Structure formats: structure tokens, C-alpha cells
């Protein structure tokens, strides 16, 4: 049965911001009906007529929260957010978009100190990484412009996303250690995965068809 024929309405949480356009392009390639409203309006809830489908537009870090609580059945979100938020959701697919990497970075002349401090938007990822490395560090949570921290002496290193490397370079920082690769994922609410299996499977298989074409 096709998605539009299904009697099960599916709510999809989409991340506003940086990965939004690439994610919308992905949905279009998967054959989902993407209306102009999704791309051009300030509306945050966007029903798709005749498709038993509804989009909600959320801040990227909140996407797993909406999905865990079941107000969205599925969501599109970066692996960085999943690792940091640790929400109880199923991770169904790696969409192979939104490529970037989680790195430790610092000044080129960085040397270990007795009281190392690491600044980051990702305190859980950073704490886990340094614990696994057997290193004791103080993690300082920032909400953005993390590259400032080593430049002005708040911390000696940062944990952050690197994509082109331009932000590090223009601020005189270098990549020190690679933590993991990051891509965008399709996630599902655990109950929706069982109760709306037909609709969730349908969207996942449509997405799956797009992935090999991109890699
Ligand atoms: N160069 C990059 N920098 C940051 N995020 C990137 C980059 N490339 C891909 N991404 C993905 O985009 C998502 C972040 O999007 P965005 O920056 O819009 O959200 P945000 O961090 O919540 O934004 P803000 O806090 O500035 O409102 C990340 O979860 C990550 O998976
Ligand atoms: O390697 P690049 O291509 O330069 O991208 C990496 C930068 O992009 C992100 O910041 P963002 O633009 O989301 O701003 P922020 O400082 O508010 O986190 C990330 O935190 C880096 O600062």
C-alpha cells in the first residue's frame, strides 16, 4: 500500500536551520509531497493534504524530544544531537546527508596541563570521550562561538563540529583528535514504530531508495 493510501497519519519532526534545506531536498527525492508552506512560511505545523502526513518544524536539538514523547512519530536529526540528548528513540536510517565530524581542537602549540578545560556545546559527548581516553578534564558548556574559548583563555581545547574547517582556520585553531563522523538520521518513536508500522516502514523504504543514489 502506498504512503498516501495508508490510514495511519504520520507526524514528521523536521530540524529548522542548517540541515533543513538538504533534508527537504531528500524528502522530495523520496517522493514525499513537500509544499511551498514547508519551505517558505513561518508556520510550525504543516499538514500535507491528502497524504495523511504532517510536518512539525523544530529546533534541531528538540527533534528527539518530540519523537521520544510521541508528538512526532518520526524525525530527521543529526547524529551529534542523538549522542548528546540520549533520548529513548529508535534510530532507523543514516540518510547520508549533513556530513560533518566531531573533533577536539585547540591552538597549534597546545600542550597538556594539570587542570585541562574543554569548552563545548556538547558536554555529554565531550565528557564521554575524555572518560574513554582516561583523561580527567573540566567540561565547560557554551552555547555557540565555541572557538573563542581557547583564543581568550577560557579553555585549552574545544569539542565541536567541523565541516569545511573554515571556522577553525580563521581563528588560528587546529584539529587535534577525531571523535566521530556525523550525519543526519531518521529516528522513530518506539510506540509509533509498532502501532504505525505500515506508515513508518513506508517512509523508511522510500528514504532507503534515495540513499544509494547519493553515495
Ligand atoms: N558545519 C556544521 N556546523 C554545525 N552543524 C552542522 C554542520 N554541518 C552539518 N551540521 C548539522 O546541522 C545541525 C545543526 O544545525 P543548526 O546549526 O541549524 O542548529 P543549532 O546548533 O541548534 O543552531 P543554533 O544553536 O545556532 O540555533 C547539527 O545537528 C549537525 O548535525
Ligand atoms: O568547519 P566549518 O564549516 O567552519 O563549520 C563549523 C562551525 O559551524 C558550527 O557553528 P555554527 O555556525 O552552527 O555556529 P555556532 O558558533 O553558533 O555554533 C560549528 O559549531 C563550528 O563553529
Automatic annotation (TrEMBL):
Claim: Nucleotide-binding is one of the keywords in the record: yes
Domain ATP phosphoribosyltransferase catalytic: 59-206
Localization terms from the record: Cytoplasm
Catalytic activity: 1-(5-phospho-beta-D-ribosyl)-ATP + diphosphate = 5-phospho-alpha-D-ribose 1-diphosphate + ATP
Positions of transmembrane segments: none
MF GO annotations: ATP binding; ATP phosphoribosyltransferase activity
GO cellular-component term (any): cytoplasm
EC number(s) on file: 2.4.2.17
Keywords for this protein: Amino-acid biosynthesis, ATP-binding, Cytoplasm, Glycosyltransferase, Histidine biosynthesis, Nucleotide-binding, Transferase
Pathway: Amino-acid biosynthesis; L-histidine biosynthesis; L-histidine from 5-phospho-alpha-D-ribose 1-diphosphate: step 1/9
InterPro entries for this protein: ATP_PRibTrfase_cat, ATP_PRibTrfase_CS, ATP_PRibTrfase_HisG, ATP_PRibTrfase_HisG_short
Record's comment describing the protein's domains: Lacks the C-terminal regulatory region which is replaced by HisZ.
Function comment: Catalyzes the condensation of ATP and 5-phosphoribose 1-diphosphate to form N'-(5'-phosphoribosyl)-ATP (PR-ATP). Has a crucial role in the pathway because the rate of histidine biosynthesis seems to be controlled primarily by regulation of HisG enzymatic activity.
Entries under HAMAP family matching the protein: HisG_Short (MF_01018)
Assembly: Heteromultimer composed of HisG and HisZ subunits.
Protein family membership: Belongs to the ATP phosphoribosyltransferase family. Short subfamily.
Name of the protein: ATP phosphoribosyltransferase
Species whose genome carries this gene: Brevibacillus nitrificans
Gene designation per UniProt: hisG
